[in-house]
Specification:
Number of helices of chain B: 11
Distance between the termini of chain B: 35 Å
CATH topology of the largest domain in chain A: Rossmann fold
Order of helices and strands of chain B: EEEEEEHEHEHEHEEHEHEHEHHEHHEEEE
Number of domains of chain A: 2
Largest sheet of chain B: 9 strands, mixed
Structural class of chain B: alpha/beta
Helix content of chain B: 25-40%
Shape of chain B: globular
Number of strands of chain A: 9
Strand content of chain B: 15-25%
Order of helices and strands of chain A: HEHEHEHEHEHEEHEHHEHHH
Oligomer: heterodimer
CATH architecture of the largest domain in chain A: 3-Layer(aba) Sandwich
CATH superfamily of the largest domain in chain A: Aspartate/ornithine carbamoyltransferase
Radius of gyration of chain B: 21 Å
Chain lengths: 335, 441
């Protein structure tokens, strides 16, 4: 792996390797001194063309725990007001000696452009591009699911995949980079994915995706699921007639209190409820669901740092085909 | 040796039997076997195909206004090298070609350059704004003698305005060339809507946005009894609608671009904006339908939609990039690759779709004429056996945005005669045609 641009082309081998490395990184987070020297002297640039404090600080924490120097670059550049071009920005970062660029961009494909052109030679990590992909989010979701799924099945999570796990993803699939990255990655890991959304919020062509599609959340729940992932829905979508009103959306596709009870009534005691955040409480997810013991929302945030450490580590430290690092040993050096 | 006399030896006329052509003073003076003319410059055309100079119904020359992208001079040099002897310059310049003054300016620039006939296209509406008819009659009556009107780049989407435009141009035998794109269905559109856009997360440009406008417009053309030309047809459904309209006797012509005959939206997976174009690259099924439509006459002509852009408009994110591809210098090769080498068309068919019919649609006198005695000598010689690799940096157009970069293509233009003067010789630019001086009043 030279770059991490999407999960669509991530092999099972690489996906499991990231997750396994993240497990080791996670152990570091539980130490008193949460720091490894692995990327000492390397420079990681967080290049954000779109505001996302959560993702940026997660990457920042990950890079700092690996002892990298971190530069945060909040670049202006919306479709309305063009600022400096992506090319000039990239060449500027290259001239400053960036080893890795973590890029968040409102335009689908912007990370691919950085990786494919000769503007910059650094490793590129896609931190969310337009409505295309958000691979580290999918990896942290998969990490969270794998820990849970291994526990349910009484196996070690390291080395495991998600074979047989039933995952429903509900919400605005059309505009969701999280949904896309999850569909590809979960398929690679062997999970069975069902997308649930109003037909207006599913892309034309979704029938080619390696998943099931449903317009009915209750039927999907009744069929049995092991993880329920709710996607953020922007209320403004109703202004473009994607749905009639937020209340109607909530009733048909939101994970509300009644559906939370349904999980209990159907005996799905091990089913988890996930959300990539930030949540619209009362729209796609009720407070009771978000705060229930089934919710993994905070675990996802925590795991995000471990997964991003793993991604940075694997991209920046030597031969990508090497086995996962012996992190426990290097952490001893830090101590 | 007479300066204006050329003897072309042994060219396969329209791909048929090898004959000689004697060109003198801008006219084909003789055609036959073993012609002789002592004063002629002899051009050996063994193995070459002689065709009528190509006529592009759809070219963006960018001047006035975007001379950083292309000028009439550079664009027409590219045209001559590509085998064209006439191009229709689209109206979306700055200022827009919506007055007699602007179309006359473009017309004059074309004559001053002397590489090809430059036929300005007039805007249908003032400023391409889609609100008020431009002075179509004034443009028709101007020195530019505009016959084709188009808001190309933007659809004349208001059905009443489109109806009026179709009706009005009947007064001077004009044609409205429609850029068929329903604007509400394509707000923010970035690429063909389908399996690939779903994966790439790029806003879709659905086929129905093109097809619904074409369906409406052919019915309007029938209702008012006027002439409609559909620019850059890109979908299988559009081909079906045009076929249906022609079967009903509606006076509609349609155009396809070389890039839509060869490329598909799979290329967008690279996110390289060189593949960003409007209408967008479609699917393989669409490509096959377009080829069949061109072969069976449903689609009348090839139009390049040559759209040069400065590099900074392509060296950026996909969503930021300008739409458009260059095409003048690759059109012949791409049509040979997709239509002739596939056995779908002959060189005679090629002459029909690139010269005869385009000249009729644009009402261009002295262009698109048969290679017969007494006809104007707009003739090209093509080496169908040549193969070459496309290098945008070696092109005459200022645009470097060729989607065929690095591709090996068949066929090359060896010689272009424009008004009996060789603008291209041996595949290289020669000298432009110089119009006789007109005494100013």
């Amino acid at each position: 792996m030279k770059h991490l641009l999407s999960t669509e082309n991530l092999s099972l081998f690489d996906a499991v390797r990231v997750l396994d490395t993240a497990e080791e990184m996670s152990a570091v987070g539980e130490r008193e001194v949460k720091k490894l020297p692995a990327l000492r002297g390397r420079t990681v640039v967080n290049l954000f063309f779109e505001d996302s404090t959560r993702t940026r600080i997660s990457f920042e924490a990950a890079a700092k725990r690996l002892s990298a120097d971190v530069i945060n670059f909040a670049a202006k550049g919306s479709s309305v007001s063009k600022g400096e071009s992506l090319k000039d920005t990239a060449q500027t970062l290259a001239a400053m000696g960036a080893d890795a660029v973590v890029i968040r961009h409102w335009a689908s494909g912007a990370p691919h452009r950085l990786a494919a052109t000769d503007w910059i030679d650094a490793a590129v990590i896609n931190a969310g591009d337009g409505t295309h992909e958000h691979p580290t989010q999918a990896l942290l979701d998969a990490f969270t699911m794998r820990r849970h799924w291994s526990q349910v099945n009484g196996i070690e999570s390291t080395g495991a995949d998600l074979k047989g796990m039933r995952v429903a993803i509900a919400g605005d699939v059309l505009h969701s980079r999280v949904a896309r990255s999850n569909v590809w990655l979960l398929k690679t890991l062997g999970a069975e994915v069902t997308l649930v959304a109003p037909p207006t919020l599913l892309p034309i062509g979704v029938e080619h995706w390696p998943c099931k599609v449903s317009y009915n959340l209750d039927e999907t729940l009744e069929a049995g699921i092991d993880a329920m992932m709710m996607l953020r829905v922007q209320g403004e979508r109703m202004n473009a007639s994607f749905f009639p009103s937020t209340r109607e959306y909530s009733r048909r596709w939101g994970f509300d209190d009644a559906r939370l009870r349904m999980l209990d009534d159907l005996g799905m005691k091990d089913t988890i409820i996930m959300h990539p955040g930030p949540m619209n409480r009362g729209l796609e997810i009720s407070s009771a669901a978000a705060d229930s013991p089934r919710s993994t929302v905070l675990a996802q945030v925590r795991n995000g740092v471990s997964v991003r450490m793993a991604a940075l580590y694997l991209l920046l430290s030597g031969d990508s085909r090497e086995a996962a690092p012996n992190v426990s040993q290097s952490s001893k050096e830090t101590n | 040796m007479a300066e204006n006399t050329y003897l072309i030896r042994g060219a396969a006329i329209l791909g048929g039997e090898a004959e000689d052509l004697l060109i003198r003073d801008g006219v084909i003076e003789a055609r036959g076997k073993d012609l002789s003319a002592d004063d002629a410059t002899v051009i050996d055309a063994q193995g070459l195909v002689a065709l009528p100079g190509m006529v592009d119904v759809h070219t963006h020359l960018r001047e006035p206004g975007r001379e950083d992208a292309e000028t009439v001079e550079t664009g027409t040099r590219a045209a001559a090298l590509g085998g064209f002897t006439a191009v229709h310059a689209m109206a979306n310049s700055n200022p827009v070609a919506d007055t007699a003054g602007v179309v006359e300016q473009v017309h004059s620039l074309g004559r001053a350059s002397g590489w090809v006939d430059v036929r300005p296209v007039g805007a249908v509406t003032v400023g391409l704004a889609g609100e008020q008819l431009a002075e179509l009659g004034a443009m028709a009556d101007s020195r530019a003698q505009v016959r084709m009107f188009s808001d190309d780049g933007i659809c004349v989407h208001d059905p009443v305005l489109m109806r009026r435009a179709l009706e009005y141009v009947k007064a001077f035998d004009g044609v409205v060339a429609q850029h068929a794109q329903e604007p509400r269905l394509t707000a923010g559109a970035q690429m063909n809507e389908g399996a690939v856009s779903a994966v790439l997360g790029l806003t879709g440009w659905p086929a129905v946005a093109e097809e619904s406008i074409i369906a409406r417009d052919v019915l309007l053309a029938q209702h008012v009894g006027s002439r409609l030309h559909v620019c850059h047809v890109s979908t299988a459904g559009s081909v079906e609608i045009v076929r249906w309209a022609k079967a009903r006797g509606i006076n509609v012509t349609a155009e396809v671009t070389p890039h839509h005959l060869l490329l598909t939206d799979e290329l967008v997976r690279s996110y390289d904006p060189v593949y960003k174009v409007n209408p967008p690259l479609r699917t393989d099924a669409d490509v096959q339908a377009l080829r069949e439509g061109l072969a069976d006459g449903t689609i009348d002509v090839v139009g390049t939609d040559h759209a040069p852009h400065p590099s900074e408009h392509k060296e950026c994110e996909w969503a930021q990039a300008a739409m458009g591809m260059t095409g003048l210098e690759t059109a012949l090769s791409v049509v040979q690759e997709t239509m002739i080498e596939t056995g779908l068309m002959t060189w005679a068919d090629f002459a029909r779709v690139t010269s005869f019919t385009p000249a009729v649609i644009g009402r261009v006198a002295d262009q698109g004429r048969p290679l017969e005695v007494g006809e104007p000598a707009n003739v090209i010689l093509v080496d169908p056996a040549a193969r070459w690799t496309v290098d945008p940096h070696k092109m005459a157009t200022m645009g470097r945005n060729s989607p065929f970069k690095g591709k090996e293509l068949p066929g090359s233009v060896v010689t272009t005669f424009f008004k009996g003067h060789p603008t291209v010789l041996g595949g290289q630019l020669n000298t432009p045609y110089r119009y006789p001086a007109v005494s100013s009043s």
